[in-house]
Amino acid sequence: DSVYVGMVVHGNGIYIMEYIQDINNTETDTKDIYTSYDTEINLQPLPVENFMHYFYIIVFPYFLLFGTVGNCLSIVLMRRYSGSVWSTCGYMPFVCLIDLIKLYVECGNDWLKKLYNDEYNLSEQILDMSNSVCKVYSFVYHLIVQEKEWIMVAVAIETAIASKRPTLIYRMCSRERGNAIMLFISVMLISLNLHFFWTYGLVKPGDDPSINVYLYSNHVKGTVSHE
Description:
Rhopdopsin 7-helix transmembrane proteins, 62% helix, globular, 2 domains, alpha+beta, 4-stranded mixed beta sheet, 8 helices
């Protein structure tokens, strides 16, 4: 059976579903469908879903605790030896700091999300604060994640030099050269990620002619015609 959706057009966007019309031309108000969906369909979580829920709540705080302690100790130790050993010890404090930020953003956010039964997402709350915050948050997070990967590439190159040409260690792996490499990586990634300031942002339905937002219940998903 075909199901047709009644939409209201505002500006250039199509984003409000008012009714559903079946093949017999019988119209049904979407409010009735939403109400019946919420009250009559009560899906019980599967055992694996319950397990994952409590796994997040119980285990993730330990990840946060041990990850915080381990990364903080690594930062202190690596900073202590960064002036007298290879530049690798200068790279690692930044890697540990980025890992600590990722730990709180990803693991911490997932823990809060499960703690509030998937009804609260801190990252989404931050992104929705304003258009400027959305751009800056996206830019900074992608920048630090990419920064870590490129720093690890530099560490891998130094390891190859140390194993293949150990006589070049003191000339190629100095602290000054390491600082110059990190500066180059930072400038390169900032330039590559500047597009976030004009390609990311909060878009309201109907504001952008290239975006059509269709909102409809899972009750009719798969049978809705967009024609």
